[in-house]
Amino acid sequence: MKRKQGKTTIRQMEIDDISAVYHLGEKLFTSEELPILYRTWDPYEVTDYFSSDPDYCLVAEVDGKVGGFILANTIIKEATAWKRYGYLSWIGVDEAFQRTGLGLRLYRELEERFRKEGVRMIIADTETENEEAIAFFKTIGFSPARRHVWLAKNLRRSANTDSRKARESRNKPESGKI
Ligand SMILES: CC(C)(COP(=O)(O)OP(=O)(O)OC[C@H]1O[C@@H](n2cnc3c(N)ncnc32)[C@H](O)[C@@H]1OP(=O)(O)O)[C@@H](O)C(=O)NCCC(=O)NCCS
């Protein structure tokens, strides 16, 4: 159910927002719906972006709580014509506030900051199945540029690892029997 939006501010992320941003991402990037984003979202994503490019880490504060966020950075490629690129890595809006324009407001603030830094192209990516996000990106002016394929390989536990673990647990003294 969409909640009625209260007082909303778009502002730069602060250290006290780190936990709220991480947990909001956990709610949005679920293993069922967005398996790749789920696997790559962890607390270090938030702390790394926040410590390396804080100017491009924004939150939407709704009635004093984090209702959305953007984590982005800039990439400088000296030898290229446009030199400075913006990379929008993560964007998320609490389901309760989706389709109320929060994502758009976060993005506009980011774009403004990128423009001031001389960014000429902004890159974003998401999973092919993430149709909602793709619709959002198209609305804000992005167009699919290239297909990017994620590959994954499951590593089976080797027989050696299993037998070593079994040996270790056999040799481990039971509690109170040292
Ligand atoms: C993608 C996301 C950030 C959009 O945020 P939002 O606050 O709901 O977007 P807005 O309300 O600002 O939408 C702006 C416009 O984008 C388009 N749009 C947004 N969500 C859409 C959807 N689910 N379906 C179709 N169009 C959509 C619409 O044109 C919308 O304008 P409208 O509501 O007037 O029609 C949000 O859906 C989200 O958090 N998704 C889960 C996380 C995610 O997948 N992030 C992207 C990968 S990192």
Describe the structure.
By secondary structure, the protein is of the alpha+beta class. It has a single domain (8-149), classed as Aminopeptidase (3-Layer(aba) Sandwich), CATH 3.40.630.30. It has six helices and five strands; from the N terminus they run βαααβββαβαα. It has a five-stranded mixed sheet with strand order 1-2-3-4-5. Strand 3 and strand 4 form a beta hairpin. Helix 1 (18-28) crosses helix 3. The mean pLDDT is 88. The structure holds coenzyme A. Residues 28, 37, 90-93, 98-104, 126, 130, 132-133, 135-136, 139 line the site of coenzyme A.
What is this structure, in a nutshell?
This protein has 178 residues and is of the alpha+beta class. It contains six helices and five strands, in the order E-H-H-H-E-E-E-H-E-H-H.
